[in-house]
Design a protein that fits this description.
single chain; about 230 residues; alpha/beta; Rossmann fold; Arc Repressor Mutant, subunit A; 5-stranded parallel sheet; 4-stranded antiparallel sheet; 8 helices; 12 strands; WalR-like; Response regulator transcription factor; transcription
Length: about 230
């Protein structure tokens, strides 16, 4: 795993956690910088942008969710959230704000090192050339090279992951995919939380469906996952 390398910023108010995480990450080939609270973490990132940020959710002052939100305003750096057992709402909120993965406390430092390596590897994957310049479905249009999407001529404010998911769906109409399939095929994740897919599908529906609670484009296939049905809302 050490061949991945990279600079990791660990933001956690627990000194013991920071020290254990630092030792495991350094043993795995990473260089590590530490911050004891959210304000310090943002300052350190501004001074020296990291390749990956490990971010505790529950911190005094600026909590991890607010730090993640502010990071996403200036950077697409991979973020791994640390959440306490039972904090499902915080975990989902972190994914909605753009976190890439999460680890539940108490956690295995080895698992955290693997997840840091994984999100960094994914971030470094080359972006393949699109097979087509545009994908369309009635009033929905994606320009792949420019990475823009419009609905009825109005530009959609899609995150990078939402755009990639929509492009994948448009490129594979009528085919049902499991959440695991989408994690791997859309974002190249060899492991990860399936709720990441659920969150991004919900956000995508809010932006492209006339009635998000009754989707006609991105259909749920019970017991499987999701399927894109073209032409049904044109």
């Amino acid at each position: 795993m050490g061949e991945v390398g990279g600079h990791v910023l660990v933001v956690d108010d627990d000194e013991t956690v920071r020290d254990v995480v630092r030792r495991y990450l350094e043993a795995s080939g990473f260089t590590v910088e530490m911050a004891g609270d959210g304000t310090e973490g943002l300052r350190r990132f501004a001074e020296r942008p990291a390749d990956v940020v490990v971010l505790d959710v529950m911190m005094p002052g600026l909590n991890g969710l607010e730090v993640c939100r502010r990071l996403r305003q200036v950077s697409g750096v991979p973020v791994v959230m640390l959440t306490a057992l039972g904090e499902e709402e915080n975990r989902i909120a972190g994914l909605q704000l753009g976190a890439d993965d999460y680890v539940t406390k108490p956690f295995s430092p080895k698992e955290l090192s693997l997840r840091v390596a994984s999100v960094l590897r994914r971030a470094r994957m080359p972006i393949p050339e699109p097979a087509a310049e545009e994908l369309t479905d009635g009033n929905l249009r994606l320009r792949l090279g420019a990475r823009t999407a419009t609905l009825d001529g109005a530009e959609l404010a899609l995150t990078a992951r939402e755009f990639d998911l929509l492009a994948f769906f448009l490129g594979h109409p009528g085919t049902a995919f499991s959440r695991t399939d989408l994690l791997e095929k859309v974002w190249g994740w060899d492991f990860g939380d399936q709720s990441t897919v659920t969150v991004h599908v919900r956000r995508l529906r809010e932006k492209i469906e006339e009635e998000p609670a009754k989707p006609v484009r991105v259909a749920t296939v019970w017991g499987v996952g999701y399927r894109y049905d073209p032409g049904l809302s044109s």
